[in-house]
Amino acid sequence: MKVATVTLNPAIDQTVCVAALVPGHVHRAHTMLFQAGGKGINVAAFLAASGCQVSATGFLGRENATLFERFFAERGIVDAFVRLPGQTRIDIKIVDEERRQTTDINLPGLAPSEEALTKLCQTIDELAADCRWFVLAGTLPPAVPASFYATLIARLKALGRLTVLDASGEALAQGILAGPTLVKPNRAELEQLTGQPLTTLTAVAQAARSLLRHDIRRVVVSLGEQGALFVEDEQVLHAVPPEVTVESTVGAGDAMVAALVLAELRGLDLTASARLATAYALARITRLDGALPPSSVLEHYSERVQVYSLVARPAEE
Ligand SMILES: Nc1ncnc2c1ncn2[C@@H]1O[C@H](COP(=O)(O)OP(=O)(O)OP(=O)(O)O)[C@@H](O)[C@H]1O
Ligand SMILES: [Mg+2]
Fold this sequence. Notes:
Largest sheet: 11 strands, mixed
Bound molecules: adenosine-5'-triphosphate, magnesium ion
Structural class: alpha/beta
Number of domains: 2
């Protein structure tokens, strides 16, 4: 069964490298790179690289769609994007090589018309004919109501399809009320959702567990270098990554989301899912090229992930 990912507000990531960034000064940049970006697109790329049949939909600006079209063709991702007049936004990333810091300048993106939103819903209905899982990931474009993910989740649920929601703010809050199958907030997103600081693992676990009442099967809270909590039924697992040399944390969450879907497709239990999801995140952060390493590397990471049952774990943070 196929998977579909939905990216409503993709971007072209334009990376410029400078020796040292000084605001207000002229810089000589030496590397410039344009990459297809957007959370659902990243998830689709990880899934395709893992041998999944995947379709990607959402909105693309017609005027600069070529970069995305090439990206999809190279990876065998089925392009089901609805085209909008104009250009997909360009997000500028300025890499300061001395400080190893990245400054991001993100633009709001194209606002789809009512007609385009209707077309997207039709596309999603069509994809539901042979896609069992739908990944809804990333920010909503301007003028799209915060309830849009909730609407899609309800629609897909009615068709008997399964959904993963990776969003933030109001789109996440409303989406959760519609009961996605799986949800993956990071700590900050969960804090915003609950309106409280979540400084201990126990507090994160409680907040995550409270979401299960919305007909959500599994909640995964990613905690950066502290790993992630995996919550389902009565179980709360903490997957702790081994120490690794981090090259870039960009897209760690997207790699994790892709692996969560893979784990479902493979029928893995919560512990095995936690290992796989963490291994994918590690594979992402230890490389700069964003490519999926060979399965032997993934297995190696997976074996080194420590999984604790939170209740049984003696020491707390
Ligand atoms: N510095 C790190 N060291 C080890 N593992 C990390 C580190 N940063 C991230 N990870 C791994 O990647 C997973 C996802 O990372 P993170 O919590 O940063 O997701 P996110 O905030 O959703 O990221 P994204 O920016 O992709 O949305 C973590 O649960 C962890 O397993
Ligand atoms: Mg994230």
